[in-house]
């Protein structure tokens, strides 16, 4: 009898557990919870990019943490922007493209990058040319060329050619394989969802706009920090208590030397 009672209590507790978890849970604003299939996957990728998370399209642990943690912070810091105007940063670690105006982020999008065999180069460059409905040459005979508006044209409907030190042929463009967004599949170019490049990125850029491409550590060394983390609680000080002079000096020193702080201490993901 006791055994039956214990089993009954366990079943009751198990049935109440999901309700308890969700009743107390916080859910950050998003555009994918009410979707399914491919549409949900793509919106998760866009949300991950906006949250400075590595883009996967899956509700992994880090994504769930950002989704359900109220005390979570996401922001960018750029210490030395190359222009007061609009420019681009491509984060190879997170598979994201961020548009900036000066040091302010004005849009983030998921991207596809190059494979290990054909990697996207790390460099500081500029947009060299821009074309709507571009034709594709097939990489000098490696592939069959495609005309403008050809549904098999891997460039999609927009192309922004890049001028990079010691490299040529790379660009930011649309795609015909949206399921690959968030991965390393290209021949080195940076692919965006067609909607994103056509409606946001291409219209905001111009020939000559700076483009920085690098990993988290490389971008950090150039003064670009992209935060995504649970906010660390600040130590509360007793009312009327004055902070020691040494503490204030250390705080000032830390701020002045922020570029020397290891990336792993700033960029948590």
From TrEMBL:
Keywords: Cell shape, Cell wall biogenesis/degradation, Glycosyltransferase, Hydrolase, Lipoprotein, Peptidoglycan synthesis, Signal, Transferase. Residues 86-214 form the L,D-TPase catalytic domain. It comes from the Bacteria. Residues 1-23 form the signal peptide. Residues 243-256 have a biased composition (Basic and acidic residues). PROSITE patterns: LD_TPASE (PS52029). CDD domains: YkuD_like. Residues 236-269 are annotated as: Disordered. Pfam families: YkuD. The keyword Plastid does not apply. SUPFAM superfamilies: L,D-transpeptidase catalytic domain-like (SSF141523), PGBD-like (SSF47090). Gene3D superfamilies: L,D-transpeptidase catalytic domain-like. Pathway: Cell wall biogenesis; peptidoglycan biosynthesis. The active site is at residues 173, 189. PANTHER family: L,D-TRANSPEPTIDASE, L,D-TRANSPEPTIDASE ERFK_SRFK-RELATED. Belongs to the YkuD family. This is Lipoprotein-anchoring transpeptidase ErfK/SrfK. It comes from Peptoniphilus gorbachii.
